[in-house]
């Protein structure tokens, strides 16, 4: 094929991908018609493409999953990159490779013994799919992300919750190849040099955990690295971060998990989890090392335990481009979901101020959600004190009141109940009976706390109860969709942390939504990165929440769906990123000259700017011939 023909064909390939993208969005019939038709109007696929710089050749190239195309290397690359004889001669198109993979993925040829899937609420088939996908990611990331993006609804529960929970529990047994960076407390004094061992000179996003509280599975120590890996998979698929410019990190500070410590295969430090000033010193050193080498990267803190999550956020958020996903991403997600549920009830955002909210789980996620919902109420006209009076928060010791003997943390304290009627330590069932909440949220990670009694009471006092069991993974959720619908006669507006199927109830199909921070963190990070915002403020988070709420199509609200469809996740991330940048601009935090310029031209220009910066999972030419398609 001639060079010109190749250029045209590559342009056509990109255009058809863009068309597919736009068609999917248009097909979603979102209420904001202008926003949703924008990609078709503004997407400008170029008819040439930059050659990707790759220094490897031959077998080293085949073994590099970032550049490997497997049987997809076209002839000129095989010739110029010393690949001849190392691969079967026939070149397959990416589509043919994808079809072949999907056969394996769907047919299930790999047998998984059910007794190896004993925890985490996942099935043997989830695990099989996880293994097949993992193997693909280890050999060909472009194809992996193409498939993840094109099959997001099916594959997100595999690379993310619930299956990622199982992968973390078993991380030490599954470990085959390194992914991400491993630091531990004994590396003190060395971290700034260690970080230079990472091969990429540019990193746009880092997700770090210390494994302290992995989903609702507790302290998993080094095994927690599975979560930053899963989150960053979504950064790429959902928001178009470049997979060569992301970095998952674990800081191993020991673990309180005896089962892991006693397991000879466990790969982490065999010591108790650190705490106190020593802990913060190690963490400071890691953050300094990471930010020292990658000062422009967005740093996401993930799955820290209650003792450290908020103090770490408070320590860095004013000086670094960082956020805590469990506190802030979850909060923005919950606000969007409640706004969505109000719209399902035919109400406006203003009615947020009238809600009575019972929230179980006074940890990082729960208190982040409570605070942001309260800030939402302030936006609707209440004082912060009036807003906090609309909440009843429970933890493992029951309802939290000012009479609590244990000292309350600064995040919980404003929400402690003050009135005579509120009994310290009251049970959830009793609180729900007495308070008659309109919204019930679960973020305790303790399993079935929304009992039949609790759910039935919600149904008795509300025409359309809003019930959000947001804990993860599946078996740690406070209830499932069927339980909620059965107990309330199919009237619940339902959203859960891990995915739940729609419910068939008395001849009707009742929708279930997923209330998970995956709707926020990719777009939030993308907006912060592209806008070079240097910090992430409450206002930017609120803008993200409102953007997410605005992405729900009217026709989906009619079906009780309170979050956008996951198949539209790239579009949702683009809108969230745009709104985050606009808020950053208003507040003087938008430091990218190019983003500012686009924003000042028009909304459409800003959308196009975001979209053009999203990495696409297509094979880029590796030699100086545009070869996006096969001969
Ligand atoms: N859907 C989503 O997007 C997100 C969900 N989560 C989930 O939220 C859960 C909690 O996460 P964090 O707040 O970070 O944990 P955390 O450890 O900081 O807080 C847990 C809270 O739950 C309370 N709790 C524990 N057992 C309880 C019981 N039996 N009854 C009442 N309260 C109880 C604890 O006292 C504590 O206040 C986890 O399952 C996590 O997977 C977290 C972030 C995002
Ligand atoms: C979703 C999430 O971040 C969590 O469950 O911790
Ligand atoms: Mg988390």
UniProtKB/TrEMBL annotation:
Active site (UniProt): 160, 231
GO (cellular component) term, any one: mitochondrion
Keywords of this entry: Metal-binding, Oxidoreductase
Requisite cofactors: Mn(2+); Mg(2+)
Positions bound to a divalent metal cation: 302-303, 326
Molecular function terms from GO: malate dehydrogenase (decarboxylating) (NAD+) activity; metal ion binding; NAD binding
Residues reported in the UniProt entry to bind (S)-malate: 213, 472, 516
Free-text cofactor note: Divalent metal cations. Prefers magnesium or manganese.
CDD domains tied to this protein: NAD_bind_1_malic_enz
InterPro entries: Aminoacid_DH-like_N_sf, Malic_N_dom, Malic_N_dom_sf, Malic_NAD-bd, Malic_OxRdtase, NAD(P)-bd_dom_sf
GO BP terms, alphabetized: malate metabolic process
Malic enzyme N-terminal domain mapped to chain residues: 137-317
Domain Malic enzyme NAD-binding: 327-585
Family assignment from sequence similarity: Belongs to the malic enzymes family.
Protein name according to UniProt: Malic enzyme
């Amino acid at each position: 094929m001639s060079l010109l023909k190749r250029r045209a064909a590559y342009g056509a390939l990109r255009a058809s991908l863009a068309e597919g993208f736009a068609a999917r969005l248009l097909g979603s019939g979102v209420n904001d018609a202008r926003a949703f038709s924008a990609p078709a109007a503004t997407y400008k696929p170029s008819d040439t493409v930059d050659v990707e710089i790759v220094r490897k050749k031959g077998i080293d190239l085949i073994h590099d999953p970032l550049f490997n195309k497997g049987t997809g290397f076209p002839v000129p690359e095989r010739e110029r990159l010393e690949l001849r004889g190392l691969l079967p001669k026939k070149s397959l198109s990416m589509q043919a490779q994808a079809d072949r993979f999907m056969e394996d993925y769907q047919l299930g040829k790999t047998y998984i013994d059910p007794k190896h899937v004993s925890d985490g609420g996942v099935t043997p088939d989830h695990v099989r799919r996880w293994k097949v996908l993992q193997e693909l990611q280890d050999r060909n990331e472009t194809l992996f992300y193409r498939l993840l993006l094109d099959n997001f609804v099916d594959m997100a529960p595999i690379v993310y919750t619930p299956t990622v929970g199982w992968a973390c529990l078993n991380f030490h047994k599954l470990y085959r190849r390194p992914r991400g960076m491993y630091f531990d407390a004994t590396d003190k004094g060395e971290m700034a040099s260690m970080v230079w061992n990472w091969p990429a000179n540019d990193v746009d996003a880092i997700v770090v955990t210390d494994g302290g509280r992995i989903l609702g599975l507790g302290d998993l120590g080094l095994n927690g690295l599975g979560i930053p890996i899963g989150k960053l998979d979504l950064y790429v698929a959902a928001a178009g971060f470049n997979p060569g410019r992301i970095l998952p990190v674990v800081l191993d500070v020991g673990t309180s998990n005896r089962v892991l410590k006693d397991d000879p295969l466990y790969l982490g430090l065999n010591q108790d989890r650190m705490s106190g000033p020593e802990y913060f010193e190690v963490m400071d050193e890691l953050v300094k090392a990471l930010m020292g080498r990658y000062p422009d990267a967005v740093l996401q803190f993930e799955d820290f335990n209650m003792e450290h999550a908020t103090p770490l956020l408070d320590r860095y958020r004013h000086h670094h481009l960082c956020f805590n996903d469990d506190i802030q991403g979850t909060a923005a997600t919950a606000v969007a979901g409640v706004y969505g549920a109000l719209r399902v009830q035919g109400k406006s955002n203003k009615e947020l101020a009238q809600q009575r909210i019972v929230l179980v789980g006074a940890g990082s996620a729960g208190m982040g959600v409570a605070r942001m919902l309260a800030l939402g109420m302030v936006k609707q006209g209440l004082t912060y004190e009036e807003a906090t009076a609309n909440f009843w928060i429970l933890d493992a010791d029951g309802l939290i009141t000012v009479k609590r003997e244990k000292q309350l943390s600064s995040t919980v304290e404003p929400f402690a109940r003050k009135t005579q009627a509120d009994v310290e330590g009251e049970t959830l069932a009793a609180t729900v009976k007495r308070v008659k909440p309109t919204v019930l949220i679960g973020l305790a990670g303790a399993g079935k706390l929304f009992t039949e009694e609790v759910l039935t009471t919600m149904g008795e006092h509300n025409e359309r109860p809003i019930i959000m069991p947001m804990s993860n993974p599946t078996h740690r959720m406070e209830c499932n969709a069927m339980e909620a619908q059965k107990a309330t006669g199919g009237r619940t507006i339902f959203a859960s942390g891990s995915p739940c199927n729609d419910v068939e109830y008395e001849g009707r199909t009742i929708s279930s939504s997923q209330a998970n921070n995956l709707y926020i963190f990719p777009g939030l990070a993308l907006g912060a990165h592209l806008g070079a915002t240097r910090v992430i403020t409450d206002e930017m988070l609120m803008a993200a929440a409102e953007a997410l709420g605005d992405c729900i199509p009217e026709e989906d609200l009619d079906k009780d769906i309170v979050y956008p469809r996951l198949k539209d996740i790239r579009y949702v991330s683009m809108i969230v990123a745009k709104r985050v940048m606009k808020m950053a601009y208003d507040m003087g935090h938008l430091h990218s000259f190019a983003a500012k310029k686009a924003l000042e031209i028009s909304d459409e220009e800003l959308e196009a700017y975001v979209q053009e910066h999203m990495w696409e999972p297509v094979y880029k030419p590796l030699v100086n011939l545009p070869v996006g398609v096969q001969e």
